[in-house]
Protein backbone atom coordinates (compact mmCIF):
# COMPACT_ATOMS: atom_id res chain seq x y z
CA UNK A 1 0.00 0.00 0.00
CA UNK A 2 1.25 3.54 -0.65
CA UNK A 3 3.05 4.86 2.41
CA UNK A 4 3.38 1.41 3.91
CA UNK A 5 7.08 1.13 4.67
CA UNK A 6 8.56 -1.99 6.25
CA UNK A 7 8.59 -0.50 9.76
CA UNK A 8 5.13 1.07 9.88
CA UNK A 9 3.42 0.29 13.16
CA UNK A 10 6.52 -1.35 14.66
CA UNK A 11 7.69 -0.76 18.21
CA UNK A 12 10.13 2.22 18.23
CA UNK A 13 12.61 0.35 20.40
CA UNK A 14 12.69 -2.51 17.88
CA UNK A 15 13.34 0.00 15.07
CA UNK A 16 16.10 1.62 17.12
CA UNK A 17 17.85 -1.73 17.40
CA UNK A 18 17.11 -3.06 13.93
CA UNK A 19 17.81 0.05 11.85
CA UNK A 20 20.22 2.09 13.96
CA UNK A 21 21.86 -0.69 15.97
CA UNK A 22 21.36 0.92 19.41
CA UNK A 23 20.14 -1.02 22.42
CA UNK A 24 18.36 1.79 24.24
CA UNK A 25 17.10 5.33 23.89
CA UNK A 26 19.08 8.16 25.42
CA UNK A 27 17.70 10.97 27.58
CA UNK A 28 14.40 12.33 26.28
CA UNK A 29 14.53 10.42 22.99
CA UNK A 30 11.95 7.81 23.92
CA UNK A 31 9.37 10.32 25.16
CA UNK A 32 9.92 12.53 22.10
CA UNK A 33 9.51 9.62 19.70
CA UNK A 34 6.33 8.55 21.54
CA UNK A 35 4.88 12.07 21.32
CA UNK A 36 5.37 12.26 17.53
CA UNK A 37 4.34 8.67 16.84
CA UNK A 38 1.10 9.43 18.68
CA UNK A 39 0.51 12.43 16.42
CA UNK A 40 1.48 15.30 18.75
CA UNK A 41 3.88 18.19 18.20
CA UNK A 42 7.21 18.67 19.96
CA UNK A 43 9.84 21.35 20.57
CA UNK A 44 13.20 19.76 21.31
CA UNK A 45 16.15 21.65 22.79
CA UNK A 46 19.13 19.34 23.02
CA UNK A 47 22.84 20.16 22.95
CA UNK A 48 25.03 19.18 20.01
CA UNK A 49 25.67 15.44 20.09
CA UNK A 50 22.57 14.79 22.17
CA UNK A 51 20.99 12.60 19.50
CA UNK A 52 18.33 14.74 17.85
CA UNK A 53 18.12 12.92 14.50
CA UNK A 54 16.71 9.71 15.98
CA UNK A 55 13.84 11.77 17.42
CA UNK A 56 12.32 12.31 13.97
CA UNK A 57 13.86 9.45 11.99
CA UNK A 58 12.18 6.73 14.03
CA UNK A 59 8.71 8.33 13.95
CA UNK A 60 9.20 8.78 10.19
CA UNK A 61 9.67 5.03 9.88
CA UNK A 62 6.95 3.99 12.30
CA UNK A 63 4.23 6.33 11.02
CA UNK A 64 2.61 5.85 7.67
CA UNK A 65 3.86 8.16 4.92
CA UNK A 66 7.05 10.16 4.41
CA UNK A 67 8.81 12.16 7.12
CA UNK A 68 9.61 15.56 5.58
CA UNK A 69 12.77 17.05 7.12
CA UNK A 70 13.41 20.77 6.65
CA UNK A 71 17.09 21.46 7.04
CA UNK A 72 19.11 24.52 6.01
CA UNK A 73 22.28 22.54 5.49
CA UNK A 74 22.00 21.62 1.84
CA UNK A 75 25.65 20.60 1.77
CA UNK A 76 24.97 18.00 4.44
CA UNK A 77 21.80 16.54 3.00
CA UNK A 78 23.69 14.24 0.72
CA UNK A 79 25.66 12.74 3.64
CA UNK A 80 22.56 12.37 5.78
CA UNK A 81 20.68 10.64 2.99
CA UNK A 82 23.61 8.35 2.23
CA UNK A 83 23.94 7.37 5.90
CA UNK A 84 20.23 6.55 6.12
CA UNK A 85 20.31 4.56 2.90
CA UNK A 86 23.21 2.52 4.27
CA UNK A 87 20.99 1.63 7.22
CA UNK A 88 18.30 0.50 4.77
CA UNK A 89 16.09 3.57 5.14
CA UNK A 90 14.39 4.79 1.96
CA UNK A 91 15.69 8.36 2.08
CA UNK A 92 16.09 11.11 -0.51
CA UNK A 93 16.63 14.86 -0.77
CA UNK A 94 15.22 17.53 -3.05
CA UNK A 95 17.37 20.57 -3.68
CA UNK A 96 18.24 22.97 -6.46
CA UNK A 97 21.69 21.45 -6.92
CA UNK A 98 20.12 18.29 -8.38
CA UNK A 99 19.55 17.53 -12.05
CA UNK A 100 15.98 17.66 -13.40
CA UNK A 101 15.99 13.88 -13.93
CA UNK A 102 17.09 13.15 -10.37
CA UNK A 103 14.46 15.53 -9.08
CA UNK A 104 11.73 13.90 -11.15
CA UNK A 105 12.68 10.48 -9.83
CA UNK A 106 12.55 11.65 -6.19
CA UNK A 107 9.17 13.28 -6.85
CA UNK A 108 7.82 10.11 -8.38
CA UNK A 109 9.05 8.00 -5.48
CA UNK A 110 7.46 10.41 -3.01
CA UNK A 111 4.07 10.32 -4.75
CA UNK A 112 4.22 6.55 -4.93
CA UNK A 113 4.79 6.34 -1.18
CA UNK A 114 8.24 4.82 -1.62
CA UNK A 115 10.11 7.23 0.68
CA UNK A 116 10.48 7.03 4.45
CA UNK A 117 12.38 10.31 4.75
CA UNK A 118 12.59 13.31 2.42
CA UNK A 119 15.02 16.19 3.09
CA UNK A 120 14.05 19.64 1.84
CA UNK A 121 15.71 23.04 2.18
CA UNK A 122 13.18 25.50 3.68
CA UNK A 123 13.38 27.75 0.64
CA UNK A 124 12.01 24.91 -1.50
CA UNK A 125 8.66 25.43 0.13
CA UNK A 126 8.32 28.76 -1.62
CA UNK A 127 9.39 27.30 -4.98
CA UNK A 128 6.43 26.77 -7.31
CA UNK A 129 5.11 23.25 -7.24
CA UNK A 130 6.62 22.07 -3.96
CA UNK A 131 3.45 22.46 -1.94
CA UNK A 132 1.40 20.78 -4.69
CA UNK A 133 3.92 17.97 -4.79
CA UNK A 134 3.71 17.46 -1.03
CA UNK A 135 -0.07 17.35 -1.29
CA UNK A 136 0.14 14.49 -3.76
CA UNK A 137 1.75 12.18 -1.22
CA UNK A 138 1.25 11.21 2.38
CA UNK A 139 3.24 13.04 5.06
CA UNK A 140 4.18 11.21 8.26
CA UNK A 141 5.58 14.29 10.01
CA UNK A 142 7.41 17.57 9.52
CA UNK A 143 10.79 17.86 11.25
CA UNK A 144 12.19 21.40 11.41
CA UNK A 145 15.91 21.07 12.05
CA UNK A 146 18.04 23.99 13.29
CA UNK A 147 14.80 25.61 14.39
CA UNK A 148 16.64 28.56 15.99
CA UNK A 149 17.02 29.92 12.43
CA UNK A 150 13.46 31.25 12.83
CA UNK A 151 14.64 33.66 15.53
CA UNK A 152 15.39 37.15 14.36
CA UNK A 153 17.34 37.76 17.55
CA UNK A 154 19.30 34.57 17.28
CA UNK A 155 22.74 34.27 15.72
CA UNK A 156 21.66 32.49 12.55
CA UNK A 157 18.38 34.01 11.30
CA UNK A 158 17.11 32.74 7.95
CA UNK A 159 14.05 34.49 6.51
CA UNK A 160 12.87 31.29 4.79
CA UNK A 161 12.17 29.83 8.20
CA UNK A 162 9.40 32.35 8.79
CA UNK A 163 7.34 30.60 6.11
CA UNK A 164 7.39 27.35 8.04
CA UNK A 165 4.70 28.71 10.33
CA UNK A 166 2.26 28.13 7.45
CA UNK A 167 2.73 24.36 7.65
CA UNK A 168 0.42 24.30 10.67
CA UNK A 169 -2.49 25.71 8.67
CA UNK A 170 -2.02 23.69 5.55
CA UNK A 171 -1.42 20.36 7.28
CA UNK A 172 -3.10 20.71 10.65
CA UNK A 173 -3.16 16.95 11.23
CA UNK A 174 0.49 16.26 10.48
CA UNK A 175 2.67 16.21 13.63
CA UNK A 176 5.54 18.68 13.69
CA UNK A 177 8.79 18.54 15.61
CA UNK A 178 11.20 21.51 15.87
CA UNK A 179 14.75 20.81 17.00
CA UNK A 180 17.73 22.96 17.94
CA UNK A 181 20.97 22.85 19.91
CA UNK A 182 21.22 26.55 20.58
CA UNK A 183 18.16 27.87 22.33
CA UNK A 184 18.04 30.60 24.88
CA UNK A 185 14.66 31.11 26.60
CA UNK A 186 13.99 33.96 24.17
CA UNK A 187 14.67 31.80 21.10
CA UNK A 188 12.62 29.00 22.61
CA UNK A 189 9.65 31.35 22.88
CA UNK A 190 10.13 32.56 19.30
CA UNK A 191 10.29 29.01 17.93
CA UNK A 192 7.06 28.15 19.70
CA UNK A 193 5.26 31.26 18.47
CA UNK A 194 6.49 31.60 14.94
CA UNK A 195 6.21 27.93 14.07
CA UNK A 196 2.76 27.76 15.70
CA UNK A 197 3.75 25.08 18.13
CA UNK A 198 1.35 26.28 20.82
CA UNK A 199 0.14 22.76 21.49
CA UNK A 200 3.54 21.10 21.41
CA UNK A 201 5.19 19.30 24.27
CA UNK A 202 8.55 20.80 25.17
CA UNK A 203 11.61 18.69 25.77
CA UNK A 204 14.51 20.64 27.22
CA UNK A 205 17.61 18.56 27.91
CA UNK A 206 20.34 19.64 30.22
CA UNK A 207 22.83 21.78 28.34
CA UNK A 208 25.66 20.85 30.65
CA UNK A 209 28.56 18.97 29.11
CA UNK A 210 30.37 18.00 32.32
CA UNK A 211 33.28 16.27 30.62
CA UNK A 212 34.34 19.42 28.75
CA UNK A 213 36.80 21.66 30.56
CA UNK A 214 36.40 25.29 29.50
CA UNK A 215 39.48 27.50 29.40
CA UNK A 216 39.91 31.03 28.14
CA UNK A 217 43.39 32.51 27.93
CA UNK A 218 44.72 35.94 27.15
CA UNK A 219 46.10 36.05 23.61
CA UNK A 220 49.75 37.03 23.20
CA UNK A 221 50.83 34.99 20.21
CA UNK A 222 47.93 32.72 19.30
CA UNK A 223 49.91 30.34 17.15
CA UNK A 224 52.68 29.58 19.63
CA UNK A 225 50.18 29.40 22.49
CA UNK A 226 48.16 26.91 20.47
CA UNK A 227 51.18 24.78 19.66
CA UNK A 228 52.21 24.75 23.33
CA UNK A 229 48.67 23.77 24.32
CA UNK A 230 48.48 20.88 21.83
CA UNK A 231 51.99 19.60 22.44
CA UNK A 232 51.69 19.93 26.20
CA UNK A 233 48.22 18.51 26.74
CA UNK A 234 46.95 16.86 23.57
CA UNK A 235 49.85 15.24 21.83
CA UNK A 236 48.48 12.65 19.39
CA UNK A 237 44.84 13.62 20.03
CA UNK A 238 42.18 14.48 17.48
CA UNK A 239 41.01 18.07 17.71
CA UNK A 240 39.43 20.98 15.90
CA UNK A 241 40.96 24.47 15.74
CA UNK A 242 38.64 27.28 14.67
CA UNK A 243 39.88 30.49 13.06
CA UNK A 244 37.87 33.31 11.49
CA UNK A 245 39.46 33.66 8.08
CA UNK A 246 40.58 31.28 5.36
CA UNK A 247 44.04 32.78 5.38
CA UNK A 248 44.46 32.22 9.10
CA UNK A 249 43.23 28.66 8.69
CA UNK A 250 45.90 27.90 6.11
CA UNK A 251 48.70 29.67 7.97
CA UNK A 252 47.83 27.99 11.24
CA UNK A 253 47.61 24.52 9.69
CA UNK A 254 51.04 25.05 8.14
CA UNK A 255 52.50 26.25 11.45
CA UNK A 256 51.11 23.20 13.25
CA UNK A 257 52.60 20.90 10.64
CA UNK A 258 55.96 22.64 11.01
CA UNK A 259 55.71 21.88 14.72
CA UNK A 260 55.20 18.19 13.95
CA UNK A 261 51.43 18.13 14.51
CA UNK A 262 49.35 16.19 12.00
CA UNK A 263 47.15 19.09 10.87
CA UNK A 264 44.88 19.63 7.86
CA UNK A 265 43.13 22.80 6.69
CA UNK A 266 39.41 23.03 5.94
CA UNK A 267 37.43 25.99 4.62
CA UNK A 268 34.79 26.69 2.01
CA UNK A 269 37.34 28.14 -0.43
CA UNK A 270 39.24 24.88 -0.87
CA UNK A 271 38.49 22.54 -3.78
CA UNK A 272 35.84 19.93 -2.91
CA UNK A 273 38.30 17.03 -3.09
CA UNK A 274 40.67 18.67 -0.61
CA UNK A 275 37.82 19.31 1.79
CA UNK A 276 36.61 15.75 1.48
CA UNK A 277 40.14 14.49 1.98
CA UNK A 278 40.61 16.57 5.14
CA UNK A 279 37.27 15.40 6.50
CA UNK A 280 37.94 11.75 5.69
CA UNK A 281 41.36 11.82 7.31
CA UNK A 282 39.91 13.46 10.41
CA UNK A 283 37.14 10.88 10.68
CA UNK A 284 39.09 7.73 9.86
CA UNK A 285 42.58 8.30 11.22
CA UNK A 286 43.69 8.84 14.78
CA UNK A 287 45.10 12.09 16.07
CA UNK A 288 44.36 14.38 13.12
CA UNK A 289 43.86 18.07 13.93
CA UNK A 290 41.56 20.01 11.58
CA UNK A 291 42.13 23.75 11.37
CA UNK A 292 38.90 25.21 10.02
CA UNK A 293 36.50 28.06 9.63
CA UNK A 294 33.07 27.53 11.16
CA UNK A 295 32.08 25.89 7.87
CA UNK A 296 33.49 22.72 9.40
CA UNK A 297 31.78 20.50 11.89
CA UNK A 298 28.05 20.62 11.27
CA UNK A 299 26.85 17.09 10.77
CA UNK A 300 30.29 15.69 11.43
CA UNK A 301 30.04 13.07 14.07
CA UNK A 302 33.35 12.00 15.58
CA UNK A 303 33.01 10.86 19.19
CA UNK A 304 36.64 11.12 20.31
CA UNK A 305 37.47 14.76 19.54
CA UNK A 306 39.61 15.59 22.59
CA UNK A 307 39.83 19.34 22.16
CA UNK A 308 38.24 22.26 20.36
CA UNK A 309 40.42 25.36 20.23
CA UNK A 310 39.45 28.86 19.12
CA UNK A 311 42.26 31.18 18.12
CA UNK A 312 39.81 33.96 17.23
CA UNK A 313 36.87 35.13 19.29
CA UNK A 314 33.58 33.46 18.22
CA UNK A 315 30.79 35.86 17.27
CA UNK A 316 28.24 34.59 19.79
CA UNK A 317 27.88 32.32 22.79
CA UNK A 318 25.52 30.16 20.73
CA UNK A 319 28.22 29.64 18.11
CA UNK A 320 30.91 29.05 20.73
CA UNK A 321 28.78 26.47 22.53
CA UNK A 322 27.87 24.65 19.36
CA UNK A 323 31.50 24.49 18.26
CA UNK A 324 32.92 23.46 21.65
CA UNK A 325 30.09 20.90 21.88
CA UNK A 326 31.87 18.87 19.20
CA UNK A 327 34.48 17.88 21.78
CA UNK A 328 34.02 14.76 23.88
CA UNK A 329 30.80 13.30 22.52
CA UNK A 330 32.07 9.98 23.93
CA UNK A 331 31.81 11.46 27.43
CA UNK A 332 35.56 11.28 28.13
CA UNK A 333 37.52 14.27 29.46
CA UNK A 334 37.98 16.92 26.76
CA UNK A 335 38.89 20.58 26.56
CA UNK A 336 37.50 23.73 25.04
CA UNK A 337 40.33 26.24 24.77
CA UNK A 338 39.96 29.83 23.62
CA UNK A 339 42.59 32.56 23.20
CA UNK A 340 41.36 36.11 22.87
CA UNK A 341 42.90 39.56 22.86
CA UNK A 342 42.22 43.24 22.30
CA UNK A 343 42.57 42.86 18.56
CA UNK A 344 39.61 40.46 18.51
CA UNK A 345 37.38 42.99 20.21
CA UNK A 346 38.40 45.89 17.97
CA UNK A 347 38.27 43.81 14.79
CA UNK A 348 34.83 42.39 15.48
CA UNK A 349 33.38 45.77 16.41
CA UNK A 350 34.72 47.10 13.11
CA UNK A 351 33.34 44.16 11.15
CA UNK A 352 29.92 44.83 12.65
CA UNK A 353 30.12 48.56 11.86
CA UNK A 354 31.28 48.10 8.30
CA UNK A 355 29.02 45.12 7.60
CA UNK A 356 26.03 45.45 5.30
CA UNK A 357 23.40 44.78 7.96
CA UNK A 358 20.82 47.40 8.96
CA UNK A 359 20.81 49.13 12.35
CA UNK A 360 18.81 46.34 13.99
CA UNK A 361 21.17 43.67 12.66
CA UNK A 362 24.19 45.59 13.91
CA UNK A 363 22.62 46.05 17.32
CA UNK A 364 21.91 42.34 17.43
CA UNK A 365 25.46 41.42 16.44
CA UNK A 366 26.81 43.82 19.05
CA UNK A 367 24.63 42.22 21.70
CA UNK A 368 25.98 38.77 20.79
CA UNK A 369 29.56 40.02 20.84
CA UNK A 370 29.09 41.70 24.22
CA UNK A 371 27.72 38.51 25.72
CA UNK A 372 30.74 36.64 24.42
CA UNK A 373 32.98 39.29 25.98
CA UNK A 374 31.30 39.04 29.35
CA UNK A 375 32.07 35.34 29.31
CA UNK A 376 35.72 36.03 28.50
CA UNK A 377 36.32 38.90 30.91
CA UNK A 378 34.11 37.48 33.63
CA UNK A 379 35.29 36.03 36.90
CA UNK A 380 32.38 33.61 37.31
CA UNK A 381 32.59 29.83 36.76
CA UNK A 382 32.53 29.44 32.95
CA UNK A 383 30.14 26.51 33.00
CA UNK A 384 27.73 28.34 35.29
CA UNK A 385 27.78 31.34 32.94
CA UNK A 386 27.11 29.15 29.89
CA UNK A 387 24.37 27.04 31.42
CA UNK A 388 22.59 30.07 32.82
CA UNK A 389 22.89 31.77 29.45
CA UNK A 390 20.76 28.91 28.12
CA UNK A 391 18.24 29.55 30.86
CA UNK A 392 19.05 26.62 33.10
CA UNK A 393 20.10 26.38 36.74
CA UNK A 394 23.71 25.69 37.58
CA UNK A 395 25.76 25.30 40.76
CA UNK A 396 28.07 28.15 41.82
CA UNK A 397 31.20 26.31 40.79
CA UNK A 398 31.80 23.33 38.52
CA UNK A 399 35.35 22.40 39.48
CA UNK A 400 36.21 21.80 35.83
CA UNK A 401 36.90 25.17 34.22
CA UNK A 402 39.81 27.59 34.42
CA UNK A 403 37.98 29.89 36.82
CA UNK A 404 37.20 27.05 39.27
CA UNK A 405 40.59 25.40 38.97
CA UNK A 406 42.66 28.55 39.19
CA UNK A 407 40.48 31.39 40.48
CA UNK A 408 41.51 34.70 38.92
CA UNK A 409 42.73 37.32 41.35
CA UNK A 410 40.86 40.54 41.10
CA UNK A 411 42.64 43.80 41.02
CA UNK A 412 41.40 47.35 41.47
CA UNK A 413 42.13 49.07 38.16
CA UNK A 414 40.13 52.22 38.93
CA UNK A 415 43.09 54.63 38.82
CA UNK A 416 44.57 53.47 35.51
CA UNK A 417 41.06 53.26 34.07
CA UNK A 418 40.51 56.90 35.03
CA UNK A 419 43.85 57.83 33.43
CA UNK A 420 42.90 56.07 30.23
CA UNK A 421 39.37 57.46 30.08
CA UNK A 422 40.48 61.01 30.72
CA UNK A 423 43.19 60.74 28.07
CA UNK A 424 40.55 59.69 25.57
CA UNK A 425 38.30 62.57 26.59
CA UNK A 426 41.11 65.17 26.52
CA UNK A 427 42.36 64.21 23.09
CA UNK A 428 38.82 64.51 21.83
CA UNK A 429 38.12 67.82 23.49
CA UNK A 430 41.41 69.68 23.30
CA UNK A 431 42.72 68.42 20.01
CA UNK A 432 39.29 68.06 18.50
CA UNK A 433 40.36 64.77 16.99
CA UNK A 434 39.75 61.11 17.64
CA UNK A 435 42.35 58.42 17.93
CA UNK A 436 42.69 54.65 18.11
CA UNK A 437 44.01 52.76 21.11
CA UNK A 438 47.68 52.97 20.08
CA UNK A 439 47.86 56.76 20.23
CA UNK A 440 46.19 56.97 23.62
CA UNK A 441 48.67 54.46 24.94
CA UNK A 442 51.54 56.54 23.50
CA UNK A 443 50.20 59.59 25.32
CA UNK A 444 49.87 57.71 28.60
CA UNK A 445 53.37 56.33 28.29
CA UNK A 446 54.79 59.64 27.12
CA UNK A 447 56.18 58.14 23.95
CA UNK A 448 56.64 60.67 21.17
CA UNK A 449 55.72 58.90 17.98
CA UNK A 450 55.58 61.15 14.95
CA UNK A 451 51.81 61.51 14.88
CA UNK A 452 51.72 62.15 18.61
CA UNK A 453 54.16 65.08 18.46
CA UNK A 454 52.69 66.35 15.24
CA UNK A 455 49.31 66.66 16.90
CA UNK A 456 50.99 68.16 19.99
CA UNK A 457 49.52 65.47 22.14
CA UNK A 458 52.63 65.76 24.31
CA UNK A 459 51.16 68.95 25.68
CA UNK A 460 48.19 67.16 27.22
CA UNK A 461 48.04 66.99 30.99
CA UNK A 462 47.86 63.20 30.89
CA UNK A 463 51.12 62.98 28.90
CA UNK A 464 53.36 60.35 30.44
CA UNK A 465 51.26 59.68 33.53
CA UNK A 466 51.18 55.97 32.72
CA UNK A 467 54.89 55.40 32.11
CA UNK A 468 55.13 52.47 34.51
CA UNK A 469 52.95 50.28 32.38
CA UNK A 470 53.97 48.44 29.23
CA UNK A 471 52.01 48.73 26.01
CA UNK A 472 50.69 45.20 26.57
CA UNK A 473 49.36 46.12 30.00
CA UNK A 474 47.56 49.16 28.66
CA UNK A 475 46.14 47.08 25.83
CA UNK A 476 44.83 44.63 28.41
CA UNK A 477 43.08 47.47 30.18
CA UNK A 478 41.64 48.89 26.93
CA UNK A 479 40.29 45.44 26.11
CA UNK A 480 38.69 45.15 29.51
CA UNK A 481 37.07 48.59 29.30
CA UNK A 482 35.75 47.75 25.82
CA UNK A 483 34.45 44.42 27.05
CA UNK A 484 32.62 45.83 30.04
CA UNK A 485 31.23 48.71 27.98
CA UNK A 486 33.09 51.69 29.50
CA UNK A 487 34.73 52.40 26.15
CA UNK A 488 33.44 52.05 22.60
CA UNK A 489 35.45 51.48 19.43
CA UNK A 490 33.75 53.39 16.63
CA UNK A 491 33.99 53.35 12.89
CA UNK A 492 36.38 51.82 10.47
CA UNK A 493 39.44 52.90 12.44
CA UNK A 494 38.31 51.64 15.81
CA UNK A 495 38.30 55.12 17.28
CA UNK A 496 37.90 54.98 21.05
CA UNK A 497 35.22 56.89 22.87
CA UNK A 498 33.95 56.66 26.46
CA UNK A 499 30.34 55.59 27.04
CA UNK A 500 27.91 57.08 29.54
CA UNK A 501 28.75 54.21 31.86
CA UNK A 502 32.26 55.70 32.22
CA UNK A 503 31.01 58.80 34.05
CA UNK A 504 30.65 57.30 37.54
CA UNK A 505 34.12 55.76 37.16
CA UNK A 506 35.63 59.14 36.27
CA UNK A 507 33.86 60.74 39.22
CA UNK A 508 35.26 58.02 41.47
CA UNK A 509 31.80 56.72 42.37
CA UNK A 510 32.42 53.33 40.83
CA UNK A 511 35.34 50.94 40.87
CA UNK A 512 36.80 48.99 37.96
CA UNK A 513 37.78 45.48 38.99
CA UNK A 514 39.60 43.33 36.50
CA UNK A 515 41.57 40.13 36.31
CA UNK A 516 45.00 40.73 37.75
CA UNK A 517 46.64 38.34 35.28
CA UNK A 518 45.64 40.54 32.35
CA UNK A 519 47.77 43.39 33.59
CA UNK A 520 50.33 41.30 35.46
CA UNK A 521 51.29 38.78 32.79
CA UNK A 522 51.14 41.28 30.00
CA UNK A 523 54.03 43.28 31.43
CA UNK A 524 57.67 42.49 30.91
CA UNK A 525 58.53 41.87 34.52
CA UNK A 526 57.54 45.34 35.57
CA UNK A 527 55.14 45.97 38.37
CA UNK A 528 51.52 45.91 37.32
CA UNK A 529 50.70 48.48 39.94
CA UNK A 530 51.96 51.49 38.12
P1 LIG B 1 22.70 15.93 17.31
O1 LIG B 1 21.98 16.07 16.00
O2 LIG B 1 21.83 16.16 18.49
O3 LIG B 1 23.99 16.70 17.37
P2 LIG B 1 23.02 13.24 16.44
O4 LIG B 1 21.62 12.92 16.11
O5 LIG B 1 23.97 13.48 15.31
O6 LIG B 1 23.11 14.41 17.47
O7 LIG B 1 23.58 12.06 17.35
C1 LIG B 1 24.86 12.15 17.92
C2 LIG B 1 25.49 10.77 18.01
O8 LIG B 1 24.83 9.98 18.99
C3 LIG B 1 25.36 9.98 16.71
O9 LIG B 1 26.56 9.25 16.53
C4 LIG B 1 24.22 9.06 16.95
O10 LIG B 1 24.28 7.94 16.12
C5 LIG B 1 24.42 8.73 18.43
N1 LIG B 1 23.17 8.30 19.07
C6 LIG B 1 21.98 8.92 18.99
N2 LIG B 1 21.07 8.24 19.73
C7 LIG B 1 21.71 7.21 20.31
C8 LIG B 1 21.31 6.15 21.20
N3 LIG B 1 20.06 6.06 21.65
N4 LIG B 1 22.25 5.28 21.59
C9 LIG B 1 23.52 5.39 21.15
N5 LIG B 1 23.95 6.34 20.31
C10 LIG B 1 23.07 7.25 19.89
ZN1 LIG C 1 33.70 26.19 36.77
TrEMBL record:
It is an enzyme of class 5 (isomerase). The chain holds residues 102 to 631 of 724 of the full protein. It comes from Leucobacter muris. It catalyses: Couples ATP hydrolysis with the unwinding of duplex DNA by translocating in the 3'-5' direction. Its cofactor is Zn(2+); Mg(2+). Residues 222-370 form the Helicase C-terminal domain. This is DNA helicase RecQ. Residues 33-201 form the Helicase ATP-binding domain. Belongs to the helicase family. RecQ subfamily. GO terms for molecular function: DNA helicase activity; hydrolase activity. Keywords: ATP-binding, DNA damage, DNA recombination, DNA repair, DNA-binding, Helicase, Hydrolase, Isomerase, Metal-binding, Nucleotide-binding, Zinc. Its EC number is 5.6.2.4.
